[in-house]
Structure formats: C-alpha cells, structure tokens
Amino acid sequence: MDTRLLELRDLRLTLQYLQTYLTMGGVAAARRRIRARATAHQCARWDCGLRDAMHNGDPAVVARKLSLFQQALFNDLHDTLGAIASQDASAPLQPRTCRPPSATGSSEIRNEFPAPGQPKHDVWERKNQEEFVRELRSIDPDVTGEPVQLLEYTTLLKDSYIQAAWYALAPSRCWSWCISGTCPV
Range of 15's domain? Predict the structure, then answer.
C-alpha cells in the first residue's frame, strides 16, 4: 500500500476535473429529467467543500489527514473484497456460517451482536426478499435490519391497502344495489 503523503496539487487538479464531470452530468440529467441530477449536484457541492477545506487548511496537516484517510479506506476496501471473495453462497445461511462476534461490534449490555448477511439474489424482488428474511429468521427469529424492516413494512402496507379496498367495496356495493333496485335486504 502507498504510505506516501498525498500530493495536494495533483488531488486539487483531479477534484477540479471531478467537479466539471459532475456539473456536466447534472446538466445532462436535468435535460433528460432523471433523478441523477440531484445526486450529481450534491456530489459537486461536496467536492467544492472538500476543495475549500484543502485550500484553507495547513497543507502539511491536510496532506497527512488525507493520506491516513486514503490508507484506512483502501484497507477497509481490501478487507471487504477479501470477505466477498471468500464468501460461500452455495447453501442457505446457517449459524455455523456466521462470523463470531467481534469485541468492537458487540453490544454487551443486551448481549446482541451484529452479524452482517449478504443476500445471494436481488432483495428488491419480493420473492428473494422473503427467502432471505426466512433464512435469517431460521437462525434468529428476532433478527432485525433493513431487509427485515423493508419486508415487514411492505407487507403491512400491502395488507392495509387490501383491507381499505374491502372497506371501500362494501359501501360502494350497497350503493350500487340501492341505485339499481336489486338490494338483497
């Protein structure tokens, strides 16, 4: 890994190019009326903020902090890619396939441990989402997290719409019977 201090001049030039691309992307997205426009403008504002902080700070301190951030980022990326490369998705999730809890990732007060799980399929599709949550719940029935919350929320939303449809159908059906003169009562 590169442990040298960042060259601020090179980084400023790269960030200037990034600012240009983000601005052009935001303009192109605005022409096509797509949602990427807001993201491009937000990134452009972040880029300006970073460049301002680099310009206003002590160059030696800024270079040191950015170098440390870069090293931490690439270490984390290396660890993440290593975990993905060694991941076994050939069988359903089992307790033995979960990593043991780490000392830094535990909540010892409630005796709970986060265990990140990665789905094998696209969890935006309901069938895959249900399968993923079912596998997680086979390990721990009280599992939480974004996929579980999303599944529960969409299930409640779907059920409430169906219930509302039934509630709306009953009075409208009675009304149509009364209008047509075929009221069964």
Answer: 8-85
